[in-house]
Amino acid sequence: MAFASIREQAGGEGGGLGTAVHVEPEQQAGDGTAAAIRERHRRRQATRTRPEITTRLVLRTRASREGLDVMRWAHRLLSSAGGGAMAARSVKHALDAAVEAARWAPSVHNTQPWTFHLDGAEIGLKADVERQLHVSDASGRELLISCGAALFTMRTVIRCEGYEPIVRVLPDPDRPNLLATVKAGAPAQADEVTWVLGGEIERRRTHRAGFADVPVPERLLQSLERAAMNEGAKLTPVLNPQAIAVIAALTEAAQGVQARDRRFTLELLRWSRAPESTRMDGVAADAHGGGRTEPYFAQREYAWRREWVRESGPGTAVGTVALLSTVGDGREDWIAAGQALQHILLHAAAHGVSAAFHTQALEMDQLREFLRQQLCGAAYPQMIMRLGVTLDADPDSIRRSLPEVLEE
Ligand SMILES: Cc1cc2nc3c(=O)[nH]c(=O)nc-3n(C[C@H](O)[C@H](O)[C@H](O)COP(=O)(O)O)c2cc1C
Fold first, then answer.
1. Mean pLDDT for the chain?
2. Could you tell me if 58 and 20 are in contact, meaning their C-beta atoms sit under 8 angstroms apart?
3. Considering Cα of 3, then 117, then 271, then 147, what sign does the dihedral take?
4. Integer Cα distance of 20 and 323 in angstroms
């Protein structure tokens, strides 16, 4: 593929520390077919060995000690591998790379509710309403957050490819499903931070268990708050133990209500991927298991009464609970929340910090309103997450191939 992971270009995350497998950029040249994608997954799994985990912990220690200095370290690593000061490639190359990478954005239940239209000079990002969750997300809020995350991914890649992105959000009132258009503007050298974010796009994964008992550094939380603010949203770390207990209780209550409601259950099952399934969307039914936190943050039951469980990870810590909110609650705000979400997740991932999501309570109007009034200062909560350090690799994820998301 065109846009190789920064760490892979640099010889793997541990390249400078002598651990990870080296992957040539040319070897990345996948054609977007299912086989190529599976091969990439296999390679990624191969690099997620114990030595790499040790490397990740080293990286985390560095991150907590030196904060953003780790980015300079990563940039030096990249530059020494000859990939840092990259000249701008063709506009077509940049736009192709942006769409290819956007597929790796997070999306609710991994619905990947997007299509892309490439007309040479411009990408059109469209909502795929066939993939909307009509029971739990009737307004399309989570759909637009997911697409917003894809939009931030495209902006990042276009920068890494050497251009200033030009974005118009909701450009045409007559075409409500056209969420944004993206062009490559003037040539511009990407800064170090953008490079590091770009390197996390395909590596980042959702965590679904407890975390290691290692605090998320205060400085990192502050930079995540700034990242959210840059995109027009607000990230609020929740430090008060009573507030954390309330969020956990609301999550469990919402999970309980949804699990007893046939409509919610059928919708969830539609997006639950059985272990042997070859489909390229949905969440692995055995995506979580073990690592129960105290207070307990209920997970979605993708396995639903079936015997698919993942081996327990070692972590049981809650991590840092955080709420992502916006001042308004319209379509533009949801897209902004999605862009903020992906900015936060990539920045956190670059520092060895993963995120777990618990958005069930936000799918129930009364619970969402309670959270808005009591914990968000009347701003609208868009995501509930826990941030923390994981000791084991997060479960792998999957995406549809490029031809499936490209519209003629
Ligand atoms: C709007 C939104 C809501 C989400 N809610 C949850 C959730 O409640 N529980 C969960 O485990 N994951 C949740 N996720 C994460 C998705 O399941 C995840 O992004 C998707 O399965 C793709 O996997 P990946 O993030 O590992 O690439 C949510 C993601 C988004 C964008």
1. 82
2. no
3. positive
4. 34
Q: Is the CB of 339 under 6 A from ligand 1?
A: no
Could you say which architecture CATH assigns to the domain 218-388? Answer: 3-Layer(aba) Sandwich (3.40)
pLDDT at site 397? 92
The number of C-alpha atoms within 13 Å of 268 and in the hemisphere containing its C-beta is 20
H and E: helices and strands count for the chain: 13, 11
Task: Give the residue, out of 131, 141, 151, 206, with the most ligand 1 atoms within 8 A of its beta carbon, to mutate for a pocket test.
Answer: 206
For ligand 1, what atom is nearest to the CA of residue 109?
17
- 304-357 pLDDT, tens digit per residue, is 766 656 666 678 999 999 999 999 999 999 999 999 999 999 999 999 999 999
Please, what CATH class does the domain formed by 91-200 belong to?
Answer: alpha beta
Can 91-200 and 218-388 be said to share one CATH topology?
yes
Question: Which atom in ligand 1 lies closest to the alpha carbon of residue 104?
Answer: 27
The string of pLDDT tens digits covering residues 115-148 is 999 988 999 999 999 999 999 999 999 999 999 9
The structure's pTM equals 0.82
**Tokens 């792998």 belong to which residue?**
396
